[in-house]
Amino acid sequence: MDTSEYMPMFLAEAQEHLQELNVLIVQLEETPSNQETLDGIFRCAHSLKGMSATMGFAHIAELTHVMEDVFELLRKRTGGVQPEAITLVLGCLDALEGAVGSIESTGQENFDPAPLIEQLRALIRDRTPEQALERAGGAELPNQTVLNAARDAGARVLHIVVKLDEDVMMPAVRAHMVLAALNDHGEALGSIPAPDVIDNFQGHVIEAWIASEHEESAVAAAATRVSDVASVEVIELEPGSAPPSGPIEADEDGQPRIEDIPAAAAAPVAAAAAGGGAGHAAARTVRVDAERLDVLMHLMGELVIHRTAVEAYTANINSPELQHAVQNLTRSSQSLQSMVMQVRMIPVDVVFMRFPRLVRDLSTKLGKDIELDLVGRDTELDRTVVDSLGDPLVHLVRNSLDHGIEPPDVRLAAGKPRTGTLTIGARHAGGSVVIEVRDDGRGVDPAAVGRKAVQRGLIDEDQAAHLDMKGAIELLFAAGFSTAETTSDISGRGVGMDAVRNKIRELGGEVIMESVLGQYTSAQIRLPLTLAIVSALQVDIAGAPFALPIDRVERTLRLSDHPVRSIAGRRVLSLEDGVLPLLEGAQTFGRKPTGEHDLIVIVRGHDKRIGLTVDELVGQRELVTRPLPPIVSDGQPVSGGAVLADGQIALIVDCDALATDMSRAQHPVHRNDEPPQGDSSDPALVAA
Prior knowledge:
Elements: H1 7-30, H2 35-55, H3 58-76, H4 83-106, H5 114-121, H6 129-136, H7 144-152, E1 156-164, H8 171-183, E2 187-192, E3 205-212, H9 216-224, E4 229-236, H10 263-273, H11 290-314, H12 320-343, E5 345-347, H13 349-352, H14 355-366, E6 370-375, E7 380-382, H15 383-404, H16 408-413, E8 420-429, E9 432-439, H17 446-455, H18 461-465, H19 469-476, H20 497-506, E10 510-516, E11 520-528, E12 533-541, E13 544-549, E14 553-558, E15 564-567, E16 570-575, E17 578-583, H21 585-588, E18 599-605, E19 608-614, E20 616-626, H22 630-633, E21 638-643, E22 649-653, H23 655-666
Parallel strand pairs: 6-8, 13-22, 17-19
Antiparallel strand pairs: 1-3, 1-4, 2-3, 5-7, 8-9, 9-11, 10-11, 12-13, 12-20, 14-18, 15-16, 16-17, 18-19, 20-21, 21-22
Helix pairs in contact: 1-2, 1-4, 1-14, 2-3, 2-8, 3-5, 8-9, 11-12, 14-15, 15-20, 17-19
């Protein structure tokens, strides 16, 4: 069978299983007695083995098969798991991830599982001949003793018959998924086919016997949710009912013959064979290539532009029918736009799943006890944002583990619990998503940061002596700055926080960091829900259109209504709630002023508010953003462009860059041989 057309599905599902296995293995180390975790591990490994065998990737299937033997023994153990075994299994997962990556790029596995298999087999005992024979059988049938024992324990014995669609392309994979779903609702007592020969399953009817406390409807619903399932029948076996005994013959398709199945199951199987799929109410899902979603979003953006143009052209036409038609068009296109945006949304847990393993490995390497708390894993973000979020979060997590959380003896001496806590949380906040990395460690020490900054020539001794927490945090974001005493593979190379800020700004977001010495450090990343379409305030500056993201606009006011002062050669705006730096719009964006202006937009950038003069307030617009090459932006504080209804290009203002440029102008980072510029006590620096 040609399996090439199923390769994208295999790669996606394999990566999902490997990610979940990494999380579950770390959870197993923390709570070895958690049976749900063990069942989840066994289910993922079983599915991955079956998928790999079906696709013809023998090395992955072979390694996963031996891993499954280890997991099977762990399921039956009541004691803890040795750290060496966990480390070995995690190493196997790394090898499998590399093999899947190689398949994606070259189509070949390109790895030798033999060394890992040898190490895994050293962890398990050889099976007895009887166990080997049982494992190799085509069916794994429960005997009467097993059934009676299950009933004596208070469980009900359920017999489930599942029929797959006639046109199912990978029955072995679906059989894996069906049995895994059933195992979540009870203890497996037997199945046809047996779990260990399911890789070669080519039939359409799957049988299972489980001891369960769940209702028949719940068990049936679990099996029905598996793709390509046509029908499910669940029957409770009455006391005294016996399972089939002896070998069950199969027909030419590997399907058990109906006459060999016990009477209690014959009717359900016959009904399934008749194609009784009326009860099949599973919610269908479809995997779609990400590029198709990008094209769909691009077309949606074009529709928004055309809709805006139609609204503009018909605004002054006195035709009730036309206005009504335009309103209907607007309503329908907005609903479509909302739906397209939702299709692109994926949970941030896709990124969070990598951190249990990362924290486990780094805490072991650093000799620290760290508890990881993941909050808001279901929070959804645009796919393009999620794809770009991994590296910045890894930087923040590594910094917290290395610099933030103290070693156990230091924490105990400071009156803290021996185990440090690292919290990674996500939540919606208006039209944005806030992701926070917070540790209960030592916090930022302005004195230590100041000493390092002096050594690197970033500030002078006098500035270091007056450095406060806010200034120290800003220095942490300076390019090449690091407080690490030695360089390691974890930190100390002077790359990290500046890269985090730059990457988040590329995504249209901001990074806000706060800390209390000896108590905690928190880094918050605020990101837009989507990068494709933004709500913005369109303004005119020196005859050119500009757009200010609406979530950064605080208010607008008239210049003539408020006093403007000059402090240290810079203009500031005096308001009732503080003093704000005042920027001339034309000068800021390299435009020739066209005359006097009396309008100011107050925007929030990074950690301060700024007043920006504009010539005209055009109105709020929904704009489809497009990235700008550096040669076009020419170093201006803009993050992209958007096509307007009249064909003009509006530049989207980067409010964080405005704040950074203002800070650099007032607090330039300089070498010791350069005289400091500006006045550190300038009231224009006050963040209202």
